[in-house]
Amino acid sequence: MSEPILSRNFNIPDAHKLSVAESRGAYETAKKVLATSKPEDVINAVIASNLRGLGGAGFPTGKKWQFLPKDNPKPVYLVINADEGEPGTCKDRYILERDPHQMIEGIIISAFAIKSHKAYVYIRGEYVEPYRNLQAAVDEAYKKGYLGKNLFGGTYSLDLVVHRGAGAYICGEETALLESLEGKRGLPRLKPPFPAIVGLFGCPTIINNVETVACVPHIMKNGAEWFVKLGTPTCGGTHLFSLSGHVKKPGVYELPMGIPLKEIIYNYGGGIKGDKQLKAVIPGGISAKILTAAEIDVKMDYDSLKAAGTMMGSAGIMVMDENTCMVKMLYYATKFFSHESCGQCSPCREGTGWAHKIVTRMYHGEGTLKDLDTLLTIARNMEGRTICVFADAAAWPIQSYIGKFRAEFEAYIQNGKGKDLKPQEAVLQHG
Amino acid sequence: MANITIDGKQVTVKDGITIIEAIDQVKTELPRYCYHPGLSIAGNCRICQVEVEKMPRTVIACNTRVAEGMVIHTQSAKAKESQQVVLEFLLANHPLDCPVCDQAGECKLQDYYMDYGLYDSKFNEQKVKKTKKAVSIGPTIMLDQERCILCSRCVRFGDEITKTHDFGIFNRGDHAELNIYPGQELNNKYSGNVADICPVGALTDKDFRFKMRVWYLGSQESVCPGCSRGCNIKVEYEKSRPYHLKNERVMRLKPRENMDVNKWWMCDEGRYAYKSIDQNRIQKLISKENGVSSEISWQKALEKIAGLLKNAKPSSWAVLASPQYTNEELHLKKKLFKDQLKWTHIAFYAPGQEGSEDNFLIKKDKNPNSAGAAQILNLNGAADMTPVIEKAKRGELEGLIIFGHDLEKIYGAETLKLIRQKVKTIIYEGTNNNPTSAVADMVLPGVSYAEKEGTFTNFEGRVQRIRKAVEPIPGTLPTWDFLLNLSGLLGLSYKALRPEHIFEDLAKDNQAFQDLNYKKIGHQGMVWNKK
Amino acid sequence: MNRAILNQLDVEAEKVVAKYDQKKAATLTLLHMAQDKVGYVTPEIEAWVSKWTEVPVVHVHEVVTFYSMYHKKPAGKTHIRFCTGTSCALGGYEKILSHLKKKLNIQNGEVTKDGKFSLEEAECLCACECAPMMQVGDKYHMDLTEKKVDQILDAHK
């Protein structure tokens, strides 16, 4: 790719500081938009740009903004979802830590568009260093009059509060995030009502991902058409792909929407570590269904991945080489979901724990062939029966790992691999 | 209004209600754990799955609103499969301790397993162990965390109804557990309700725990006599094995839904006051003659009282009626003592007996029928017993008939002693032994509210029925029955045979009760016609 | 002792609460603040947060037990979150975690005898591009090797 957009400042020293960021053009677009545009202009541009939610859901951003009620007397909130937590994903951390002003500028323009005067950034609790950079950036922006009353000397005012989470994956789900922001356990809310109608503190609320709002200044600066051209017909722009696992050059890569997965792994990632064979790839974070080596001829965009039976999700690509044990991988997946289930809905609370117990037993050499069917039944029964999609996400690894690698699971069970090993030793020796 | 179809039945329901509300209106069965009509929607148990045509997946009935033309199936293969798989999840970590669980017989897990489950368990793993297995969390309730299905009804009850914020769900995932705040106890005035709303055996009522299996219980509708609210209740009693429980018959009270009175709830004070029905009862009709007490028959007692009253000067006898009695009994008292015998000293109000009150259910007037007493006896503001007591103390009364009141409790032991010295004849009618009954010349054993029919009028003028749950203890006689007999001997003739007939007479006699009858009062009561 | 610390924090708490549109929203932030000072969340801290936020204390306790970052018992002077997510598993974290445990002589959820370190096996900390990794105190340490772990621990001694 020729010109980095979102990542253009990632390797600039001290780009999180206002002076450096401004020298690189930060806030110029915001100033211009606030001085010359109407909120509707921004919404129209964002709609025209085909910008989609880059946190995982891929919902068209402009359309989401339009769900806000017209003529509502209550305050409107803009909440930024910086609760990055999807295993395999690390992209938002780069923006938060290395270029927070890019996001703040995006917040200013987005909040202006939806007529909000209060924004919250909900940042993952463990991200202490990114938080510090972000908070410092917010403080600098306030000092300079880029946040607070009468932004850039104009009439529009916006307050921004950075709020730290405290360690719960589920708070990445937007209504759980709102609950958490309101000082409660992060339990996803029943929908309807949707946050655009009843959100934070009962008021209309838009929740956007860090990367999503970071795109907005670029759209306003270069035009929707330019943004559309960067991507695919249904999804504009570039995307920050997180690449991890058995590749030579893991990292965060800004690439156009629709780039072939193969190209990411072999060109940008440098191929498989140790020049081994590829076995499988998870293309969009732990929740996305796994692709076998034979299935990686796919473009990285929402529609192509959906057609391939998986999803873009958070664009966290995890690469597994030929020596990877799929039982072990499923063990890590079920461990994650059983640890992170909020425990609210019975199918998910009981199902994730139940599945993890079976897989753990299997991993330690005590599995039976019947367990595989039980796992698939549990997965099927969890799906679509809960308040949020966490249970579905928990079901997909079970279904796809067993579905695509059943022979390996059966061999593992029948060969008694792992038998006579204590759990800790088993963990050390497999894989 | 919306026209919808539930299991093939076409119904018209109010717009915007939830499917479960519509289902309840047409009285179709649908399993539920977290849903309770008196609490906010939680939607967490996921059991109330129904199939709605044109929707890809089954949905929960408690959080889906009806729409015009909606076709709902609660029993289709798709709906039942959903209900069953959710049930299997709920039971995955649930202990199999039904034989020693006090909830057995009224457990929704058991019930729905029989109705919707009946699968072979696939769960072969170690169940999650939780820390609190049958521990006391306060004066009234035991908690068993392993049985809890985390429906959060009790949490919402504490947050939304009592606002005492007692319960919370701690930790997350399958380690989530219900508890009260560490070091505190569940001690609010409505704590017993959490055992009622707990759909499983996680919260059980200490008072009832292990007393008996619920399938041995009979149940009768009644009204709590604990205060002037008149909460609708069920009196639940032992029906077949009295030997089992030392002749205690009433086992517990449960609130009964009445949206105009108590909704689904009742207070602990009322809930646990039932013991007086079976304890410390007056069981023998005692008459003292020349200082010697002897048991006599009702026939003899009635003749003796009739003889005394026939010769009594209307101004030298007094009757202390009571708002603890039914409208029917108060009506007979009024007819006999006021209208027939023309007594001038009639009162019922015991001063200084008010208790605590809140802005929810509990009223400070601890009588169930003060409004009825005032309306029926019509004493023009002279209901207070104190002037009568003063008269008695001064030796100006020859005889005193006391219904239920314990004068020592109201006026002190000295007053009772003085009255005993100054009044020649004291007749006491009531249910339980107390210092006043102990000094009476004649003690007439009455029956409790659980052993008779009648009506109470609550503080808002709602006339509500009490019903006989258990038979009167041998030797006791309902007050209305005693008064009917006595009236007969004193020349008053009624066609009344039962309280229902007395009520008809009352309705003719008193404008406030006009047009009311037992049928109209029904199960939920009716507000009287007082202008 | 806690009381004195909390009294000091009152000034800051007032500012924090004022930032939010509703007091209850300050719950997580106040818990972080108090834990940073005291080392873990005590009943006194829960009561203090309840006072500032007007959230019933039982619900403050729900929050404390729900989120993994709040310590329910004293943690070490330096708390280590060791990532055990999928990418770190692909990066072979087990060997390094095992080394760390041996070195500190503690297991998951424990505190070293000298109280200097505590260890938590964490779910994905989202530094997958640099697996295996761990968070020591506030700081992310990436691309771990056994040798690197030794150096990091030495620096905290």
Offer a quick outline of the entry.
Chain A is 45% helix and 13% strand.
Could you describe the 3D structure shown?
The complex is a heterotrimer of chains A (431), B (531) and C (157). With 431 residues, chain A is an alpha/beta fold. Chain A is 45% helix and 13% strand. Chain A is globular, with a radius of gyration of 22 Å. Residues 418-431 of chain A have low confidence and may be disordered. Chain B has 531 residues and is of the alpha+beta class. Chain B has 4 domains: 2-90, Roll (Ubiquitin-like (UB roll)), CATH 3.10.20.740; 98-106 and 124-205, Alpha-Beta Plaits (2-Layer Sandwich); 214-276, N-terminal domain of TfIIb (Single Sheet), CATH 2.20.25; 286-527, Rossmann fold (3-Layer(aba) Sandwich). Helices cover 27% and strands 18% of the residues of chain B. Chain B has 16 helices and 23 strands. In chain B, the strands form 6 sheets. Chain B has a 7-stranded mixed beta sheet. In chain B, strand 16, helix 8 (327-340) and strand 17 form a beta-alpha-beta unit. In chain B, helix 2 (77-92) crosses helix 3 (108-117) and helix 8 runs parallel beside helix 14. In chain C, a hairpin with a 2-residue loop joins strand 3 (134-136) and strand 4. Chain C has a 4-stranded mixed beta sheet, covered by helices on one side. Chain C is 50% helix and 11% strand. In chain C, helix 1 (2-19) runs antiparallel to helix 2 (27-38). Chain C is α+β, with helices and mostly antiparallel strands and 157 residues long. The chains are: A alpha/beta (431), B alpha+beta (531), C alpha+beta (157). The interface between A and B is medium-sized, with 30 and 32 residues.
